[in-house]
Amino acid sequence: MSDYDTDFYTWTKQQAAALRAKDIASLDIDHLAEEIEDLGSNVQHAIESHLERLLLHLLKWRYDPAQEPRRGWRLTIRHARRELAKYLRRNPGLQHHPADYLDEAYGAIREDAAIDTDLPLVTFPEVCPWPIEQVLAADFWPEATA
Question: Number of structural domains, the chain?
Fold first, then answer.
């Protein structure tokens, strides 16, 4: 059994040292490949998570008449957009992922928005009311309901 199975931290240090030393014989190629793929998946999941959080707060911003939490929602929206921009800048291979994931993300958070706001589900459109360009745009703030 390798350190990969019993002490992941030590395994990562050993593998990093072997990579730097170009000690091919010491590399655990199968597990390294698996971990590298997992890193890519983690970036994709982070983008999805930030997009879902952004959509949830845009819905609350637009449809929830509550005034008290609006400053917090604004900060959350700004933070999610900033994080998405950072991930997309660092991972150009995922530039189209927010657009590809938009419908699925919206479907996932629409019900969350109803639960979070105590508003009826029908309050929120069945499909995302904004194109991805607006969702990601720093200057886009959907008009709140009166």
Answer: 1
